[in-house]
Structure formats: C-alpha cells, structure tokens
Amino acid sequence: MEACGKNCSEVNKRAIDAGLAKRKKAKTEEAFIDAEVKAAKASSRLERGDGVLYQVYTPRGFGMKKRCFCALTRGLPEGEKMSPTYCKCGETFARTYWQSVLGRQVEVKLLESGLTGSDVCRFEIRL
Question: Do residues 21 and 36 make contact, with C-beta atoms less than 8 angstroms apart?
Fold first, then answer.
C-alpha cells in the first residue's frame, strides 16, 4: 500500500506543488502552518497539537457518500468496513506531502479511518 501512496503522490502532484508554492510564500514554517490551520474546509482541515499536527479528512464533506478519497474504496457499501492496511496509502501520501512541503522528514500515523467505521480520517504528523 505504500507503493500505492507513492503512486497517488505522483498522480496528485498538483496538490503537493500547491502546498510548496504556499510554503514558499510564507515567511516561516510556523506562518505556513498557521495559514493552513485557518484554511479549514468541509472536507479537510489541519489541527495543531503539542509538537504534532493532525490532518483530518472528511470525504463526506464534499456532499458525497464516499468514505475515502481513494478510488480503490469508493464502491465500499455503507456499513461495510475495510482493513486499515488500505490506509497505508493515505499515510504515505500525507508523509510525501508534508516532507515535500517542509523539506524535512516527518512521521505520519493513522489514528482514525472512514474505512474502519469513523466519520473522519485522522493522521498524526510528528514534526
């Protein structure tokens, strides 16, 4: 699933490039993160913790029934669950995004998943 996440990062390179462009405009990493926290959307938001960030995705925030942004999971019937192994793809995408944007290593860990029954996908990003 990590290979899937790397592929997803390539396919969605525009999202990473957009993050890089925003980071370059910000005077500091803190200013960039503050701006990202303030730019919360119905489908995605960034929360700040003590030494960590939380990337929270709410795919249903788009007004659709999907529980994951991944095309591999869109046909999952309501009430059905999938292994969190599939979320290794999302972990890899989030790690690739944040490492690219911040220019350094980060650790990413899945905390909640729409595929396993949560209403959100929540990733912890250790800076």
Answer: no
Picking from 6, 12, 29, the residue whose alpha carbon sits closest to that of residue 101 is: 29
Q: Which CATH number covers residue 73?
A: 3.30.1380
**77/74 Cα distance (integer angstroms):** 8
Total count of domains within the chain: 1
Range of the domain at 105: 2-126
Strand partners, 123: 55, 110
Tokens encoding 109? 């860990």
Give the pTM: 0.90
Tens of pLDDT along the chain (127 residues)?
A: 889 899 989 999 999 999 999 999 999 999 999 999 999 988 899 999 988 999 999 887 776 677 787 878 877 888 889 999 989 999 999 999 999 999 999 999 999 998 998 989 999 999 9
- Token pair recorded at residue 125: 């990003």
